[in-house]
Amino acid sequence: MRSILSLWKLTYLTISLSTISFLAALPSPAQTSPVPSPSDAPLELALLTQPNGTVMTASTINPEGLTTPSLWWAKENSENRLLDNWIAYAASENEPARVDLIVNQQVWSVLEYLERYHFVNHLGSSARREGYNVRVFNYQQDLLATYTCNFVTSPVSCRIQMNAQNRLGLLRSL
Fold first, then answer.
1. Eight-state DSSP code of residue 140
2. Which of 143, 68, 77, 80 minimizes the C-alpha distance to 110?
3. Residues 111 and 169: beta-carbon distance below 8 Å
4. Across-strand partners of 103?
5. Contact yes or no for 166/138 (Cβ under 8 A)
């Protein structure tokens, strides 16, 4: 009986030390940099028709070469013409660079949740490679989704947030 108890204590001690070693190897919350919240700046639809020198839109032409971010190809290949336009803002002292995508509400509303997620992930990944966060809106200025990254970390960490209303499409398809 005494040897069983000693064996149990030794096993417990080994498991405890292994757990402590594992937990010590994990980064503390102070060491990890969370993904920031998406920008809360308002959507400026007037910039689509009257752009200023600090933004790019789907109709902006750069005579010197490709304009960053390059979303024209994505717009032209957007299934069912989902992506209608965008406004790209350069980084400022207060915010990282971002692109506000404006989608066709009629097309967006018929997509299932996973189709919407795929769209946000695909364009968000493209924009991330050029250092931009993404917000998705309709013309009624409803925020539909975001793709936000922490560009300070290596590798870059990102998060997609979908409007809660969008999850209902997933439930319908089940």
1. T
2. 80
3. yes
4. 83
5. no
Cα 66 to Cα 63, 69, 76, 98, distances in angstroms:
8, 8, 15, 17
Cα→Cα distances 115→63, 144, 147, 148, 173, Å: 35, 13, 15, 19, 12
| Predicted structure pTM score | 0.70
The two most distant CA atoms of the chain are separated, in Å, by 86
Q: Tell me the pLDDT of the chain (174 aa) as tens digits.
A: 555 555 555 555 445 444 444 444 444 444 455 888 888 888 988 888 887 777 877 766 654 544 555 565 555 555 558 888 889 888 888 888 999 999 999 999 999 999 999 999 999 998 998 899 999 999 999 999 999 999 888 888 999 999 866 444 444 443
